[in-house]
Amino acid sequence: MLPRATIVDRIVAYVQAHIESGQWPPGHRLPSYQQLRAIFDCSETPIKTAERILEASGWVEGIPGKGVFVAPHPPVRPAAPSG
């Protein structure tokens, strides 16, 4: 049995999926904490944790006083092997 994804894992996956699909191109402002709180029905703490993870891995960049944006060159995850 696979472990249940934490709320932080779900937020990270949500942001990565939107970036990888092209829905959120480089420079796109991510939803606000309030919007993400409504989507995930959680406090700001897991959102901030997910933001730190995404920023540390190069997916997003925070600009103080402006918000969080898709990084100019977000990472590309390798495609799943077929077969």
From TrEMBL:
Domain HTH gntR-type, chain residue ranges per copy: 5-73
Gene Ontology MF: a single term: DNA binding
Keyword tags: DNA-binding, Transcription, Transcription regulation
InterPro entries attached to this UniProt entry: Bact_HTH_transcr_reg, Tscrpt_reg_HTH_GntR, WH-like_DNA-bd_sf, WH_DNA-bd_sf
Domain of life from the UniProt record: Bacteria
CDD domains xref list: WHTH_GntR
Official protein name in the record: HTH gntR-type domain-containing protein
Originating organism: Virgisporangium ochraceum
